[in-house]
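Researcher: Here's the sequence for the chain we discussed earlier.
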Amino acid sequence: MRRYLDVVLPSVLITIAEALYFIGNPQACLAVHGLNVLACIFLPLALGMDMTLFQAFSLISLIRLVGLGMPVFFSLTLYDFVPVYAAAIIGAFVVLGAGRAIKEQAKAVMDVLINTIRKMRGNLALWTVFLVVGILLGYLFSNIEYVIIRPQALVPEIDLSYLLILGFIMLFFVGFGEELMFRAILQRRMQTRVGIWGGIVLTSFLFAAMHSVYFSFVYLIYVFIVGMILGVAYYRTKSLGFVALIHGSINFFLFSFLPYGFLRFF
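Model: Thanks. This is the structure I predict for it:
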C-alpha cells in the first residue's frame, strides 16, 4: 500500500473534497483540500518518500482553496479567474523548478519560452494546423458542453473589448493554467508511476472531479471524456500550447457567444 501512497491518498482526498462540494458542503470541501495540502507536504517528509507526485496533487487542491477562499474584488466575475489561476501558475512553476534557486527557475522558464518560439518559427505549417484544429475542437466541445450545463455569459455584451479580455483570460490563465497543472505536471508524473494509460485515465478523472461546481453527473462524465481527449492529445503531440488552445477555446465560446444564441449548432 505504501508503494502507491503518493497516488492513492491524494486522489482519494481530492475526490472526497469535490464530492462534498457536489452535495452542497463547500466548507467541508475546503477542509479536506486543506488536509490534502498538509498531507502532501508532511507525509513525504515523515516517511522519506519522493515528493514529485505529492507536489502535483497539492497544486490541484491549491486552485480550489484559492478559488473558494478568495474574497470578491470585482463586480464582473470574469476577472476573478485572474488571481486564482495566477496563483496556480506561479505554484506550478515553483513545483517545476523545485530545488532550484529563483534565478535558475526564471532562467529555466525563459529557456522554455524561447525554445517554444523557435519551434513555432521552424514549424509554422504545423502550428497553423494546431491553431485551426484547436479552435475548431474548442468550438465543437463548447457546443456540446453548453447543451449540458447552459451557463451564463461572462461578458455583459458581445463587444470586441470584452471578447478580447475573455479570450486572453481563458487562453492564458484558465486554459494554460489548468493544462499546465493537469497535463504537463500531474499527467506526466502519474505516467511514470502507473503507466501511460493509467496516468491519462487518473488525471482525466481528477480533472472531471474538479468540475463538481456545476452539480451534474452528466457533465462530470462529459468532462472526463474531454479530459481523456486532451490527455491523449498532449501525450501524442507533447504540445502544451495545443491542449491549452483547445481548453481556452472551449471556455471562450462557452461563456461568450453561445449564451447569447450565436454560433450554436445544437
